[in-house]
């Protein structure tokens, strides 16, 4: 029986974490002794793990890392971790160099700087594993590379490497030492290999796993929109972060309202930008038209009940939210960016537009006024997804 370790940064309700839950189901207890370490000791999906997965964290909080209360817990943990084993002092010169490099590009990424410190202050694992798998870039990749003993090491990339702010210098070229590197889409792979061409032969595309039948089942459960609104409903699912470009969606909703389009735009998700986005919504007089619903354990009834699903983001790896919308036959509009381009074929199973308020507004208006078109797109989207992969374990054979 092989001993396998998975490491992930947090275990909140985001796309990568959901995909991890599905992958863990493939590591059946008759063949694998599977353990999981959550680098930041936090996240609400801990209760959805398969019962045979061993949690290595000595202390753990199931608060969402995106909620206000969960954010406070996370920040306290970060402050404490800065000084465990002198992590911040050990990385001081590295942090100064990284800030200088980012400064030259006129963009600082505080979260990227912190991952190295969080990795070095993580729990010390004494066990030796047959395979260790970092399921996210950043902290989990650094931790597996630097602090885990294993015969083989693998890592996953879920974002456009360069666009997300990573560099070889920031990573201390750790990817050169991994035995296998998995990217969730071809575009993510291309972005990564543009920076690490030496890794070409050991890099593979590994699509996110989703349980299509479970998504369909949950979409029929009680839930979904609770207001009595009788106009068109637009839905977006995703964390309230800069990557998701919600300020552009809000401006697009303002344009729709000014043009007399009767619609409401609902967002499922939490994040650090909630207050800032809410202020913008109120300032533009959109309190009834652009509604931040927060996170929910079962988003699928919302997908099933909406008229249009919109995913207007700056960049993606491969969006689980888009996959979920496809499973449930939603008419889908996405922004023309990495990740999204690989999931939607313009005019066939969805529509695509540039990431500007005017472009998003124009495309939404066309789709809301053409019910036949929406139904056609939704029907094609629902049959687009490939059958569930049954041979995924071949990727972990060495």
* Class based on secondary structure composition and strand pairing: alpha/beta
Q: Regions with pLDDT < 50 over 5+ consecutive residues?
A: none
**Got a strand count?**
13
Helix content: 25-40%
What is the string of helix and strand elements?
Answer: EHEEHHHHEHEHEHEHEHEHEHEHEHEHH
Query: End-to-end distance, in Å?
Result: 15 Å
Strand ordering within the main sheet: 3-2-1-4-5-6-7
Beta strand %: 15-25%
Shape: globular
Largest sheet: 7 strands, parallel
Q: Return Rg in Å.
A: 21 Å
Report the total helices: 16
Summarize the structure in words.
The protein has about 400 residues and is an alpha/beta fold. Helices cover about 35% and strands about 15% of the residues. The protein is built from 16 helices and 13 strands. The protein has helices at about 15-25, 70-80, 85-90, 90-105, 110-120, 140-145, 170, 185-195, 210-220, 245-260, 275-285, 300-305, 320-325, 340-345, 355-370, 370-380, and strands at about 1-10, 30-40, 55, 130-135, 150-155, 180-185, 205, 230-235, 265-270, 290-295, 310, 330-335, 350-355. The strands form two sheets. The chain has a seven-stranded parallel β-sheet, covered by helices on one side. Strands 10-9-8-11-12-13 form a six-stranded parallel β-sheet, sandwiched between helices. Helix 1 (about 15-25) links the parallel strand 1 (about 1-10) and strand 2. The longest helix has 14 residues, at about 70-80. The model has no long low-confidence stretch (mean pLDDT about 90).
């Amino acid at each position: 029986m092989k001993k396998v370790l998975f490491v992930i940064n947090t275990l909140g309700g985001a796309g990568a974490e959901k995909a991890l839950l599905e992958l863990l189901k493939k590591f059946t207890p008759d063949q694998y002794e599977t353990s999981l370490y959550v680098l930041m000791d936090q996240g609400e999906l801990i209760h959805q793990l398969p019962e045979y997965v061993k949690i290595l964290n000595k202390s753990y909080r199931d608060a969402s890392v995106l909620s206000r209360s969960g954010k406070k817990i996370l920040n306290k943990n970060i402050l404490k971790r800065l000084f465990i084993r002198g992590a911040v002092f050990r990385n001081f010169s590295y942090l100064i160099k990284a800030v200088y490099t980012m400064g030259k590009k006129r963009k600082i990424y505080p979260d990227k700087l912190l991952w190295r410190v969080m990795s070095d202050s993580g729990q010390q694992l004494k066990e030796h594993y047959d395979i260790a798998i970092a399921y996210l870039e950043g902290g989990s990749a650094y931790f597996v590379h630097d602090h885990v003993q294993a015969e083989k090491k693998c890592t996953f990339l879920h974002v456009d490497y360069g666009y997300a702010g990573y560099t070889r210098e920031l990573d201390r070229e750790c990817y050169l030492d991994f035995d296998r590197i998995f990217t969730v889409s071809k575009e993510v792979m291309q972005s990564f290999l543009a920076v690490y061409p030496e890794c070409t032969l050991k890099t593979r595309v590994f699509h996110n796993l989703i349980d299509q039948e479970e998504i369909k089942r949950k979409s029929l459960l009680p839930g979904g929109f609770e207001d009595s609104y009788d106009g068109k409903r637009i839905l977006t699912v995703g964390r309230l972060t800069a990557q998701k470009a919600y300020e552009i969606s809000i401006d697009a909703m303002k344009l729709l309202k000014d043009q007399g389009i009767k619609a409401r735009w609902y967002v499922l998700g939490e994040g650090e930008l909630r207050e800032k986005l809410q202020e913008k919504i109120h300032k533009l007089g959109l309190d009834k038209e652009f509604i931040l619903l927060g996170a929910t354990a079962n988003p699928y009834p919302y997908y099933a009940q909406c008229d249009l699903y919109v995913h207007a983001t700056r960049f993606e790896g491969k969006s689980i939210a888009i996959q979920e919308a496809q499973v449930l036959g939603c008419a889908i509009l996405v922004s023309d960016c990495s990740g999204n381009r690989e999931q939607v074929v313009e005019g066939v199973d969805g529509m695509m537009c540039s990431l500007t308020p005017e472009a998003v507004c124009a495309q939404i208006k066309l789709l809301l006024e053409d019910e036949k078109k929406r139904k056609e797109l939704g029907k094609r989207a629902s049959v687009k997804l490939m059958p569930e992969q049954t041979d995924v374990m071949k990727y972990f054979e060495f």
